[in-house]
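agent> fetching stored inputs for the nickel (II) ion docking request
agent> found them:
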Amino acid sequence: MELLSSWCYNGSLPESYVMPPESRPGDLIVPLGKSIPVIDLQCHDQIETVRQILKAGEEYGFFQVINHGVLEDLMDETMDVAEEFHAMSGWDKEKECAKDPKGSCKLYTSSFAYPREEFHLWRDAVTHPCRPLDEHIQFWPEKPSRYRKVVGAYSVELWKLSCRILEFICQGLGLSSDYLSNELSQDPKIMINHYPPCPEPSLTLGLSKHRDPTIITILLQGQVHGLQVFKDGRWICVEPIPHAFVVNIGYLLQIISNGKLKGAEHRVVTNSRDPRTTISFFVYPCDESLIGPAKGLVDARNPAIYKAFKFTDFVAAFILKPDKEALKELISAPRILD
Ligand code: OGA
Ligand code: NI
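agent> prediction call returned; pasting tokens
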């Protein structure tokens, strides 16, 4: 497996990157000016902030946050380091990601299932755990030389921001504000995606339509378009706003909220001009956590529409060996009609 960024500047799009017609980007049919909600986290009326977050989570499963408290300089520096990392030679990247004998730092192209894929995706990625920091940072890349310092500081700030957002969400759902502040959210991972310019953006994708297998995801997307959200049968572009974060509800939070919040489907399209680098902060549960609709959200009138399951079993059915039937079997509870 050779990284995309090692050969992609050589001309045409290989056949294996051509998506079947129904999955291709196609034309965007989105009313002008329609985008996902933007929420100001510095708003003094906290009840209003909670209301906006919940509404966005219900309607879109996506929103952007501004005035979120993470320093702009740190965001810029982290994006610089992310770009520098992907600009290194393939050999260097592999070496820098091989420091943990257990393989906690992963580098791949397309998806980690590259050898089994029918179609490849136009992206490279590196991912690693980030909490507790002192347990993991020793296995992170040491090149670029400021990688650990900068990405370490960034992951501490993103952890704080995710805790705040989770508390808002819990309040909005009517749960105790620390309902998610436990093993349900304690294993966050950083992922740095890189989408080089693509010779045929209309035929391929950077990421195909998916839901994140997370509680929430907080994305720094830089200034290049590419992320789209699927809503009401249409694709909506997520406008880059300088120094905003894009937040999305993950599939697991959809389940915990008993379907009230939407783990929205999204994808990434490519373009032929600008390389695009993004940084995802995935809030994951611990492996053994039990995921299911929160008790406080289930009663005779609102029966559970999902069963409870262990996060590892979900990973097996949803990520490692995607199997729609196995996933349905794992999560669906029969709806009890009254
Ligand atoms: C992801 C994702 C979006 C982007 O990493 O799951 O959806 O714009 N990323 O890179
Ligand atoms: Ni995603």
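agent> quick read of the result: The mean pLDDT is 93.
agent> awaiting further instructions
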